[in-house]
Amino acid sequence: MSEIATPKFVRAPTLRRALEGTPWRRFVILAGFALAWELYARWLDNALLLPTLGATLSALWSAILSGELPSRALTSLRVLITGYALGVAVAAVLTTLAALSRWGNEALGLLTSMFNPLPAIALLPIALLWFGVGTPSLIFVIVHSVLWPVALACYGGFLAVPPTLQMAGRNLGLSGGRFVAEILVPAAFPQILSGLRIGWAFAWRTLIAAELVFGVSARSGGIGWFIYTSRAQLETASVFAGLLTVILIGLLVEGVIFRSLTRITVQRWGQVQP
Amino acid sequence: MNVAPRLTGVVGDAAVPTLLELDHVSISYPTPDGNLTAVEDVSFKIAAGERLVLLGPSGCGKSTLLRAVGGFLKPTAGEIRMDGRRIAAPGPDRMTVFQEFDQLLPWRTVLGNVRYALERGKSLPRREAEAIARRWLERVGLKNFVDAFPHTLSGGMKQRVAIARAFALEPALLLMDEPFAALDALTRRQMQDELLKLCEETGSTALFVTHGIDEAIRVGTRILALTPHPGRLAATFDVPPETRARGSSGFGELERRIQTTVFSTPEIGHV
Ligand SMILES: Nc1ncnc2c1ncn2[C@@H]1O[C@H](COP(=O)(O)OP(=O)(O)O)[C@@H](O)[C@H]1O
Ligand SMILES: [Mg+2]
């Protein structure tokens, strides 16, 4: 067939290009919010109810320097990642079965409609009965909080894969697990990615809530426990410092991990607009 | 030319073995209002080296038939045999080029798409698959686009990739479901000519589906016309090589003949 020539590219102006892709609008909004906090807290002048941003940051700084907050955060993250990985793995198995068989399909539909509306934290009493006070109970509720939204998103994504693309895959003789892994998963990746995001947010909030309800032992508690004990000691600035840490870790994961994952996958593949 | 009811296609040359045989094939879809018969009692054969065109208006069951040959759906009655064996599942011996542009894997580059097909469909090692993929992409004019992702290509270029992918696997039978229907008229003509050239150079056997009479004459060696609702064979036309040239007297005459005998019959209707 005849040769097709490559297209030519035109470059955008420099300033545009420098700002392009940076979240500069977000920084402006964030700065406005920080200013409002500081001013309102000063006007209120009640450190027990609302410490100033400055006091919160200095409490955060000293908690980081003392090593307490980092070790608390690490404890929380370790539990979180274990539970998250386990939840995603179980979701992967369930959705694969659902994609490959009618029984699996029905089972997944039934289980998700039963368990998805159930708040993970409501399972904590059961978890405590079964696993006792400790990390296994936390992991149990995190798995529950991750599993159903991720499974729902994956399966919804599988169902939305264009029939032509599926036929193109089966045309090559693909079937079973290979068809799921090499055709359905990448084709449904936009939905899977948003499922993973939602799952991450759910897991994070479930963990903090569970840690607040029972601090395990003071020695091994996570950020939730840090917030709880700070409140008990009426160190409100430290409570806010703990909350800030939760938010910062969340932002970091969203802004760095999920954003880069989106950029190198579905954006590059043209499955979502940048 | 043979007129309906005709149940068996004619194999042009008795010495050439039959590759594909449809034996009283009916296909229906279950719908909320009961079963919808899309194809009824269709029989024909394709001999090796032939390019058979299924011609008919939209909705007459062409895609349904092609999908059954591809192994993507099962006939409700009758049997489809390839080399004497009943078709049970899709396979790379029947590579399909679909009409839709989303038949390429969006997460693989142009080269990646063709290479992956060779790795999976023919179990070739990566390097060998890549070499063959490059050769075919060059042949369809996409040498400069091997590293592009499909979403950056025009519709015609996407179809070129799909064509390269299908030819690269050297299938016993090429299946094409209106691959140019969604392209503009100029691109479509060019692609028809280039496809014809590729088919003639490789001696491929093909089953080609279209609703355009001119396209059927251009690419086919034999044309089966279908009537709609449900799809049945209406007539067959042989296309002699000298008729294939656009603007030749044979081309225009055959076009008119198909038009009057098939598409102007009231029971069949217009495209
Ligand atoms: N998946 C399906 N379910 C129900 N009916 C279908 C389905 N696919 C096609 N049909 C119907 O079968 C008939 C033939 O369709 P199709 O084979 O796509 O025709 P063509 O390719 O010739 O346009 C049409 O009436 C169409 O509405
Ligand atoms: Mg069709």
Mean residue pLDDT of chain B: 88
Strand count, sense and closure of the main sheet of chain A? none
H and E string of chain A? HHHHHHHHHHHH
Q: What is the CATH superfamily label of chain A?
A: MetI-like
* CATH top level label of the domain at 1-86 and 220-265 in chain B: Alpha Beta
Total tally of structural domains of chain A: 1
What share of the residues of chain A does DSSP label as strand, in percent? under 5%
The total strand number of chain A stands at: 0
Biggest chain pair interface: A-B, 28 and 38 residues
Looking at the chains present, what oligomeric state does this protein adopt?
heterodimer
> Which class of secondary structure composition applies to the elements of chain A?
mainly alpha
Largest sheet: spatial strand order of chain B: 1-11-10-4-9-8-7
The tally of beta strands of chain B, per DSSP, is 11
Question: What is the H/E string of chain B?
Answer: EEEEHEEEHHHEHEHEEH
In CATH, the topology of the domain at 1-86 and 220-265 in chain B is named Rossmann fold
* C-alpha geometry of chain A: flat
Proportion of beta-strand residues of chain B: 15-25%
Q: CATH architecture of chain A, please?
A: Orthogonal Bundle
